[in-house]
Amino acid sequence: MDIGFKLPSINRIGIAEPFRWLGGAVGDLVQAPAACLTYGLLLSAASLGLCYGIYRTNAAYWVLAISLGFVFIAPMMAMGIYEAGRRLEAGQKPQLGQILFVRQAVRQDTAYLGVVLMLIYMFWGQIAQIVYGLSTYQIHRTPQALFDFAFHSTDGLRMVAIGTVIGGVLAFITFSLVVVSAPMLLDRNENVFVAAVTSVRAVNANFGPLLLWALMISALMTLSALTGFIALIVVFPLLGLASWRAYRALVGARS
User: Fold this and answer.
1) Domain encompassing residue 150
2) Rounded average pLDDT over 231-242
C-alpha cells in the first residue's frame, strides 16, 4: 500500500570525500570572503565574550565545558553559512545581510531542531558537571588551576578520559542527527522528522567517511577553542561551506 511517504535517496561516497568538501569550501570562501569572514568574526566575538564573562565569575570549569560543547549547537548557528553555500552554488555572490538573516530558516521545523540541539547541549553541561564533581572535591577557579588538575593529576586524567568518551559518543549521536538535517531544512520544504531520519541514514550508509568528517570537525573546532576562538573567524565559515557541500553530495532526490 502506498501511503505517499517517501524519503530522499542517499548517495554513497568515498573515504576521501570530506577532504574534497573542505578543499571546495576554501574556494567558496575565496569567492565571498567579506560576508563569510564577517559572519565568522561576529560568532568568534560572541563566543569569546560569553566565555570571558563566565571566566570573570571565577568559573573556569564552565568555560571548558561550554567551549567543548559548542559543537552541539554549531550546526544551527551555521544557517547563514549554509545560505552562502547555496547562493554560491547558484552562481550568486552572497551579501552579509542575506546570510545574517535567512528567511527560509525561520520556520517551525528548524525551531524544533534547534530546541533538540539546545537540550542536548544542556544535557552535556549536566554530564560534564557530574564527571567533574565526582573527580574532585575542589573548585578550580582559574584556567591554570584547572589545567594543572586535569593533566597533572591521576584524578584529573581520569576525568578527562571519561569526559572525552562520554562527550565523544554524545557528539557523534548529535552529528548523526544534524550532519544532513540542518542544511536540508534550509534547502527543502521537509519536516524535521524526515530531515533527521535522512541524516541518520546518510551516516549509516557512509559510516567511514562521515566518521572521518566528524573527527575533522572536532579537530578544527578544538583548535578554534584553543586559540581563544580567534581561529573560529576562518574555521566556522569553512566548516559551514563544507557542510553544505556534504549535504549536496549525500542527499539525492526523493526515492
Assistant:
1) 31-85+105-247
2) 94
